[in-house]
Amino acid sequence: MSVWYSLDKACVNHITGRDSFDAIMAGIMAGKQAGLSPIKLNMVAMQGVNDHEIERMTQSLP
User: What is the pTM of this model?
Assistant: First the structure.
């Protein structure tokens, strides 16, 4: 997966400027269901925006 901004829907929508969280998550889950493993996400950490989620982003996907 290319860029993942946040695990918080409001934050993703703020960063992307559109309601894109559900589509992004659906794509990630589709990859998981298709057997892609491991799924790697590239996070762009932005100070004061999503940097508080760095540790959480290292956790496993649901």
Answer: 0.71
